[in-house]
Each structure stands twice: as C-alpha cells, then as structure tokens.
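Below is a filled-in request sheet from our internal design queue. Each sheet records the structural input a requester submitted and the sequence that came back. We keep these sheets so that new team members can see what a complete request looks like end to end.

REQUESTER: design group, bay 2
PRIORITY: normal
MODE: inverse folding
CHAIN LENGTH: 232
BACKBONE (tokenized):
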C-alpha cells in the first residue's frame, strides 16, 4: 500500500547551519529531494543544470577528504562554477580575517558558501555577516568543530529512512523505532547524530560505547535512551 504523503512544501531556508530548528516537514523535503537526485546518479550522464552559471565557494579551514570532495562533486554535478579556498595559500597568512575572506569571495560572485572550520560557530558568524550585508548568500555548515555536521546527519537520516521505505523515505518511518548506535570515538559526526535523535521523531536510541561518552550524549539528547559499554 502506497503511503499518503502531505503536499510538497516550498523551501524557505537560505542557510543550513543546524538541524536543531528544522521541522519534520523540512526534513521530509530534504529526503524527497535527495531521492530525486539519487535517480540522477544512476544515469550515464550524472549532471543537471540546476546551478548552472551560479558560484559555489568551498571554504575549508581544516583538512577534509570526504566532506570537501563530496561538496565539490555535488556542485559540479549541479553544473555550478566552483571556488575552492585553501587557507595555507590565502591572505589569512598576511592577517586577513575569516570574515574578510568571506566578503572577498562574496564580492567575486559567490552565491553559496560551504564552510568547514574547527571552531564551533564560524559558519553561523559568516551567515550573520552575509545577512547583515544583504548579500543573499546561502551558507552551509560542513562541520564546525565538535558542534554540528548537518550534511552528515541528513545523510544518516536518509539512509535510515530508506531502510524502511526506499521509494518514499520520510521521517514518520522512524517513529517508535528502536535504533542501536555504536560509539567508539568522540568525533563531530557522532555529536551531530544526536541532533537527529533530539528531533521529535520518536525513536528510542540505544547507545553502545564508553561510559563517559554515553553519559555525555544521553544527557543532550532529551529522548528516552539507554547507554552501555560492552568491552571487547
């Protein structure tokens, strides 16, 4: 039986900085959009003109392999023009500030900025400055230290929902589900997985990991959860 889905909503957000204030409807928009692009990736020509003649700037202030290349590849497949920023060869070495760098790229025509920084809050600061300048720039948080990694969390959410319904992934599929999570190291991606759990989806998460890590995360989730450490 095909589930009855609500009518599609129009996307209203400019920035994607955190998932903490996302509504379930907004998360479902992301899931359905991701599903449509999954079909594109199955084509021989994996490219669409969605962002043709638009400029995406990747500002990665710390080393990254998977996230940076994933964003660059995604922009190319959307036909965007790409500006890649490398701090080691930039004017930061001559005293330029991060905001100066962002404003310079904005002046060069950047319409999207993908920000990765080891310090929490940097993407939010850049987004606030772009809004103050009236720049109409969309800022995406590609990981800010131990704070959040929204794109990774959205990918996790998409993967989980597709396990229950590959054709119509949606948040409602996780309501009332019991999901085990294995935690080995305290890394940003794990911190962000808790942001999914803290949404009003209704699943019960069972953590398996070292006791200090479990306690820290269970206290921030605000959902019925259990945590235990099973030594090897």
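RETURNED SEQUENCE:
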């Amino acid at each position: 039986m095909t589930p009855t889905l609500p009518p599609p909503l129009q996307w209203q957000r400019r920035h994607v900085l955190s998932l903490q204030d996302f509504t379930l409807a907004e998360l479902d928009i992301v899931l359905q959009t991701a599903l449509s692009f999954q079909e594109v990736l199955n084509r021989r020509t994996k490219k669409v003109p969605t962002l043709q003649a638009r400029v995406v700037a990747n500002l990665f202030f710390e080393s990254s392999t998977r996230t940076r290349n994933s964003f660059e590849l995604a922009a190319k497949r959307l036909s965007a023009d790409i500006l890649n920023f490398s701090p080691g060869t930039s004017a930061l070495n001559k005293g330029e500030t991060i905001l100066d760098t962002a404003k310079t790229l904005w002046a060069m025509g950047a319409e999207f900025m993908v920000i990765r920084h080891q310090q929490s809050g940097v993407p939010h600061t850049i987004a606030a400055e772009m809004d103050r300048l009236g720049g109409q720039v969309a800022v995406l948080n590609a990981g800010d230290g131990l704070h959040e990694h929204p794109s990774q969390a959205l990918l996790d959410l998409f993967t989980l929902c597709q396990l229950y319904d590959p054709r119509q992934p949606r948040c409602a599929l996780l309501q009332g589900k019991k999901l085990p999570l294995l935690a080995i190291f305290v890394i940003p991606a794990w911190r962000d997985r808790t942001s999914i759990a803290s949404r009003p989806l209704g699943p019960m998460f069972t953590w398996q990991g070292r006791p200090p890590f479990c306690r820290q995360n269970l206290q921030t989730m605000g959902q019925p959860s259990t945590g235990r450490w099973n030594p090897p």
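SHEET NOTES:
- The CA atoms of residues 62 and 117 lie 6 Å apart.
- The first strand starts at residue 55 and ends at 60.
FILED BY: M.R.
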